[in-house]
């Protein structure tokens, strides 16, 4: 009887997800190439205005890394119609909040306002695109801000440089080989003209998507968008011919040192496909299976039962061109990195040689169902998803349909993908060590 009740509950949950969570949206293009997506939700008097630009660290000159992230800061400096320093004062003064973030693939700016301030949000974002002031005082100011951010989040953070070491060893040709925050000496060496050229090339309407989500009147908002964004001229289309990576066929062994740590770490990193590839979704499920919570395989075995690790985890850092699948562990007590690697590899081999249990499989599906619901639980989250699915996945409907990809993944798929990508001869094995271990 319990099994029947469980099955009925599962069917009801799936039915609920298929209907109640559906996100309605409308999309169209302006003549200048700006893509617009509107989502109307009048349940709460809030609105998100956001713009995502298809520019990230991979679009930088190898000798000028950090530009994309730098612009995330620089474009809050001011515009021809907004005095320097006022951009970030106007928003909270009108009951709003704002933020921006950068990855290797894109840069995202957004504001959340009371719905009666939607026009203000559109004006601010149109100003950022149409009338930015890029001058030496702004560059110098934000240079110091970025340097302080790097000191706090990377240089002085324990294990803060591990991703930098993974990237430089995992990618030899593609621009994913450098970090998003870049090198400070590159920013110091850059001229004002180089910053202005970067802006002119990438901050154009035909390289962006505008999202307005929340308590809106679509007819009124469309007119505002036409008035504020319509006059912005179309830019020269961007052509990307990024370098390709040859497959890894022999294990890459490397060491890196960090003065901010006392406990070493072992890192296994595999180069895996784009997040648009179904295999990337399968790798997300494998990560959850291995280290998603205290009942996961790696945590339960190495932290809870054998007490060989202080921490252990697996994550699929998925990106537009390639992804990096990373498994890591911090040894406890006298455990060696070699012993920890052996135990981690045993769990991966189990996935390759045997189907995971039906119980674990159903647990995974439930976890991804829950993540899917949460991602669309606010207009702020919906705006981010709409922008991402359009700009990077080329399929806005994934906001409603992506969960079906996970539902289509079988236990056999999980086994096959583990066999395909997670092999010792296809990886980087990185020993991340305290500075005093350096010989």
TrEMBL record:
TM spans (from-to)? none
Q: Name one GO molecular function term.
A: metal ion binding
The biological processes this protein is annotated with in GO are:
proteolysis
Instruction: Give the range the annotation lists for the signal sequence.
Output: 1-20
**Which terms are listed as keywords in the entry?**
Hydrolase, Metalloprotease, Protease, Signal, Zinc
- Tell whether Hydrolase is among the UniProt keywords: yes
Peptidase M16 N-terminal domain span: 36-178
Is Hydrolase one of the keywords?
yes
For the Peptidase M16 C-terminal domain, which residue ranges apply?
190-367
As for family, the record states: Belongs to the peptidase M16 family.
Name of the featured protein: Insulinase family protein
From what organism does this protein derive? Formosa sediminum
């Amino acid at each position: 009887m319990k099994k029947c009740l469980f099955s009925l509950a599962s069917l009801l949950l799936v039915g609920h997800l298929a209907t109640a969570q559906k996100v309605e949206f409308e999309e169209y293009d302006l003549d200048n190439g700006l893509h617009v997506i509107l989502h109307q939700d009048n349940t709460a008097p809030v609105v998100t205005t956001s713009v995502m630009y298809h520019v990230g660290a991979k679009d930088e000159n190898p000798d000028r890394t950090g530009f994309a992230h730098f612009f995330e800061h620089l474009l809050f400096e001011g515009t021809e119609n907004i005095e320097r320093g006022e951009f970030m004062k106007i928003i909270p003064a009108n009951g709003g909040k704002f933020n921006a973030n950068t990855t290797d693939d894109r840069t995202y700016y957004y504001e959340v306002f009371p719905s009666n301030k939607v026009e203000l949000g559109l004006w601010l974002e149109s100003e950022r695109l149409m009338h930015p002031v890029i001058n030496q005082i702004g560059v110098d100011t934000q240079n110091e801000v970025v340097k302080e951010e790097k000191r706090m989040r990377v240089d002085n953070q324990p294990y803060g440089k591990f991703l930098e070491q993974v990237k430089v060893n995992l990618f030899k040709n593609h621009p994913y080989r450098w970090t998003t925050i870049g090198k400070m000496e590159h920013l110091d060496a850059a001229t004002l003209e180089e910053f202005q050229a970067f802006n002119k090339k990438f901050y154009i309407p035909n390289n962006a998507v505008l999202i307005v989500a929340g308590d809106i009147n679509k007819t009124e908002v469309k007119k505002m968008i036409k008035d504020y964004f319509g006059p912005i001229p179309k830019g020269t289309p961007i052509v990307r011919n990024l370098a390709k990576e040859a497959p890894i066929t022999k294990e890459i062994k490397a060491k890196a040192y960090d003065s901010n740590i006392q406990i070493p770490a072992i890192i296994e990193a595999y180069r895996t496909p784009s997040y648009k590839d179904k295999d990337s979704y399968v790798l997300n499920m494998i990560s959850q299976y291995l280290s998603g919570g205290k009942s996961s395989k790696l945590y339960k075995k190495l932290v809870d039962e054998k007490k060989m690790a202080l921490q252990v985890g697996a994550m699929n850092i998925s990106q537009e061109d390639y992804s990096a699948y990373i498994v890591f562990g911090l040894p406890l007590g006298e455990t060696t990195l070699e012993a920890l690697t052996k135990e981690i590899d045993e769990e991966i081999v189990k996935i390759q040689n045997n189907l995971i249990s039906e119980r674990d499989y159903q647990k995974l599906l439930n976890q991804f169902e829950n993540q899917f619901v949460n991602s669309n639980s606010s207009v702020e989250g919906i705006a981010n998803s709409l922008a991402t699915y359009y700009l990077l996945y080329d399929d806005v409907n994934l906001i409603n349909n992506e969960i079906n990809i996970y539902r289509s993944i079988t236990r056999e798929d999980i086994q096959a993908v583990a066999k395909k990508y997670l092999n010792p001869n296809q990886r980087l094995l990185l020993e991340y060590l305290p500075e005093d271990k350096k010989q």
